[in-house]
Design goal:
Largest sheet: none
CATH superfamily of one domain: Cytochrome c-like domain
Number of strands: 0
Oligomer: single chain
Number of helices: 6
Order of helices and strands: HHHHHH
Helix content: 40-55%
Shape: elongated
CATH class of one domain: Mainly Alpha
CATH architecture of one domain: Orthogonal Bundle
Strand content: under 5%
Structural class: mainly alpha
């Protein structure tokens, strides 16, 4: 092949790749909203300072139950949040703290060893409803020792 033909084909190929390149000029996708302390590069606020703004009533716990099932939380934490692959959420034993704020942060930011972050997927209100649902669950009479791994 002649050098001018090869050079022309190469230029066309590069132009096509540049035309197809996805731009990330907008930064964060619009569906992901970061709290101010994350956007500013700060640390998470201490979980003990965050309070559930929703009352633990039948409406919020029913909505929380629906979100818990819809997001397949029961696929890991079991029905009634009693524990299965993931730990029990009702036995009173907490790896990352058992305050409402700690639960919110675990759901929002996720945790190592399998807990995904739902902060970019669920609204803070939906997460608080899940916290209300967890709080409304009865504590089991007997707690199997295997539920906290």
């Amino acid at each position: 092949m002649r050098p001018s033909v090869v050079r022309g084909a190469w230029c066309v190929g590069v132009a096509a790749l540049l035309a197809c390149e996805r731009s990330n000029a907008g930064g964060v996708p619009p569906s992901v909203r970061y709290p101010e302390h994350v956007a500013a590069g700060g640390n998470q606020p201490p979980a003990g300072e965050i309070k559930n703004p929703l009352p633990i009533d039948s409406a919020n716990t029913a909505d929380g139950s629906k979100v818990f099932s819809a997001m397949n939380c029961d696929g890991c934490h079991g029905g009634g949040a009693l524990g299965w692959v993931g730990p029990s959420l009702v036995d009173g034993r907490w790896r990352y703290g058992g305050t409402d704020g700690a639960l919110f942060q675990s759901i929002y930011y996720g945790r190592p060893r399998g807990m995904p972050a739902y902060g970019g997927i669920l609204s803070p209100g939906a997460i608080w409803k899940i916290v209300s649902y967890i709080r409304a669950q009865p504590v089991p009479v007997t707690v199997p020792t295997e539920s906290f791994k």
